[in-house]
Amino acid sequence: MQITSNFDGGNILVRDIADPGDAHLEIRRDNQSDFYQWFYFRASGVRDTPLVLHIDNAGTSSYPPGWKDYRAVASYDREQWFRVPTDYDGRRLTIRHTPDHDSVWYAYFAPYSHERHQDLIAACQLSPRCRHELLGATVDGRDLDLLVLGEPAPGKRVCWVIARQHPGETMAEWLMEGLLERLLDDEDPVARQLLARAVFYCVPNMNPDGSFRGNLRTNATGANLNREWQEPTRERSPEVYFVRKRMEQTGVDFCLDVHGDEALPYNFIAGPDGVASITKRVLDLQDEYERLLMRSSPDFQLEHGYDAVAPGAANMTMCTTFIADRFGCLSMTLEQPFKDTVDSPHELFGWSPERCRKLGRANLDALFGILDRLR
Ligand SMILES: [Zn+2]
User: Fold this and answer.
1) Closest CA relative to residue 183, chosen from 216, 133, 148
2) Residue limits of the Peptidase M14 domain (predicted)?
3) For the segment 248-263, what is each residue's pLDDT rounded down to a tens digit?
């Protein structure tokens, strides 16, 4: 057996794989930071071989509760990602799988590659309703892409949707794909109305460097981008620096920041509740958005999420809180599971790219319901 990860998004350290039935691996830390949880590797020469793959350092990863009731994803064609039996004993994560083909890829969640990102940008810009802007360069020299959907005009609502500040949360870009596809469908009545009355500024991948490097949480300088919003710099966090600068030009009436949560097996929203300047009007809007989203998608729920933050106690370095305060607008973090949804589980795929896409589409129904009251 060979195990390799020298490709876009790859992450694994090989310790001892002499016995495929008792192989030992470790997850590599994000560069210049101690975060780790994302893994993605290929096992070769394994057809019909009963594999037992131990990830020995799982117990000291960034979010150990993330491994409880978690199942890894596997793929033979890198298109369809299915779940495989996975155990966690409090220390090691163990994947047990007998592949049907010579090579198989394993990952924490269905990867979203840089090539696919570029295909997404290319496909969107072909639409007459979409323009592409290059916001700037990342630390590793990658492009930071912005898609503008709809024609800017006075009186139109300004909606920002950003995804994947944390690069290992690939579900965020899968969700973005569904949202963009629907917005650009000129036979979708909700999309047509939204673009008639609003302009969308969408950043499908806030952290292309961390994504390519196979990081969980940080960019090329070791910065956690979702703690950089108060004082981003071109050197340390150019991704946030460029996006914030563009937001200052457009103004913001609505901001959705899309993430994944390692531990909680639910889709949920974290709002700006701890922001000192937040108004009842904005909190009521959030409430209604969540109710509309739940009605549009049974994969979303209201019961489980993060604990409410006391007034004035919010961490103001995050996108959601910073934007809510700076623009006095509805600003939310949407979290999706790495595992599955407890209320609507899917045995074969768990939470999956297709389900992410559909939740992305459903978000537009919720937004449609409150659009006129955003300002
Ligand atoms: Zn996140």
Assistant:
1) 148
2) 110-374
3) 999 999 999 999 999 9
